[in-house]
Design goal:
The protein contains twelve helices and 19 strands. The chain is of the alpha/beta class. The longest helix is centred in the middle third of the chain and has 18 residues, at about 175-195.
């Protein structure tokens, strides 16, 4: 048989991305916020695939797509998406010419930054829309509240910049309600003082937690991230979200090990009975967390849960299927998704769902479906 006629093998590890679930979560975000949305697509759309998610969401009437840096903005544009792009963090000097040339919207955190943008826009004979970033408690960027009254007139003198919006960020909306309510009040006071809705086309503060837990007040734009992908950062939210990503692998080997036999590196797990062990073709090299060792993590095979045993290795994990004699080589295994919530995996790995999603590595194939 000619080698060209042999089909490529199916993947050992893949992530199924349900686009219908994404749309349902987007609608839930619209209902929760009651205003226009900026879909946050940074970090490869939280590991779901930047270009594919951007192309799909470009049909969903978004005000902006939010990214972390110019590399992500460039990839979205190169994917043929023309939705306005917003840069969520401060930029540095070597990035700004590309931002002006492409008309991406940066947030301004310093006068020096604004002046350089203005100079570049002048040289290119362009007028660049920018948003004023206000630091109301995050401590990561933006003008602190006391600076805003002084800096806005200076920004207004920069004739090639258009102050199109104002925004801030919530650091503790899912942890500290009292602080977050004060932050909303502080932000509204600043916006009113600077001219309110008559002065700014876009006013935005809320991330997913802010949308799910608080009234939006003056804001007419919100920035859903995690909730788009089916996870609520608010533990008691009554907004129903659908999981978008299901991480899967398959059983590569099933065999019996005798009592007293070690499993995986370090022999931290030793069988206490004859044990039927399934080896699964996924590991921390695919983004499955190594810290799940000994934390009671489970996987699902044919909808039934089975315990992880031994350390997670780079390319493989082992599962006790003694009580599941129907498990055979080639069976699909769910690492998280509909049976095993990603939040459960994150908790047992002592991390957060954001890190689990963004940690899924490129060798895991993303498969997009509308079902």
């Amino acid at each position: 048989m000619a080698i060209q006629s042999i089909k490529a093998s199916p993947p050992r590890a893949w992530a199924e991305v349900n686009l219908n679930a994404l749309v349902a979560n987007l609608q839930a975000a619209r209902s929760a916020a009651g205003c226009a949305l900026m879909a946050v697509l940074k970090a490869g759309a939280y590991g779901h695939g930047l270009e594919e998610m951007a192309r799909f969401l470009s049909t969903q009437d978004l005000a902006f797509m939010g990214v972390a840096n110019v590399g992500e903005a460039r990839r979205i544009r190169n994917a043929g998406v023309d939705t306005p792009i917003y840069l969520l963090g401060a930029t540095w000097a070597a990035e700004r010419e590309e931002i002006v040339a492409n008309g991406w919207t940066p947030c301004i955190s310093s006068l020096d930054e604004a002046q350089q943008f203005n100079s570049i826009a002048d040289r290119m004979d362009k007028r660049l829309k920018v948003h004023l970033a206000v630091d109301t408690g995050m401590g990561r960027g933006g003008f602190v509240a006391a600076q805003c009254r002084e800096v806005l007139p200076l920004l207004d003198q920069l004739g090639h910049l258009e102050i199109d919006g104002i925004g801030s960020h919530l650091p503790s909306a899912d942890e500290d309600e009292a602080f977050t309510r004060r932050q909303f009040a502080t932000f509204e006071d600043i916006v009113h003082e600077l001219g309110g809705r008559e002065r700014f086309r876009w006013i935005h503060l809320s991330n997913s937690a802010g949308m799910l837990g608080y009234r939006q007040g003056l804001c007419n734009l919100a920035r859903p991230g995690l909730m788009l992908y089916g996870v609520s950062p608010m533990p008691h939210s009554d907004v129903f979200l659908q999981h978008v990503m299901t991480l899967k692998s398959r059983v590569t080997l099933v065999r019996w090990l005798p009592e007293g036999h070690g499993v995986s590196y370090g022999r931290q797990f030793v069988t206490t009975r004859p044990t039927r062990v399934a080896t699964v073709g996924i590991g921390y090299g695919d983004g499955y967390p190594r810290h799940l060792n000994g934390m009671g993590a489970e996987v699902a095979i044919s909808g039934r849960r089975f315990p992880l045993i031994g350390r997670v290795t780079m390319d493989q994990i082992m599962v006790d299927v003694t009580d599941g004699p129907q498990v055979v080589e080639g069976d699909e295994v769910e690492l998280f998704g509909g049976v095993i919530p990603v939040a459960e995996i994150a908790k047992k790995a002592d991390t957060i769902a954001w890190e689990i999603f963004t940690g899924i590595t490129p060798r895991v194939m993303r498969c997009y479906m509308e079902a």
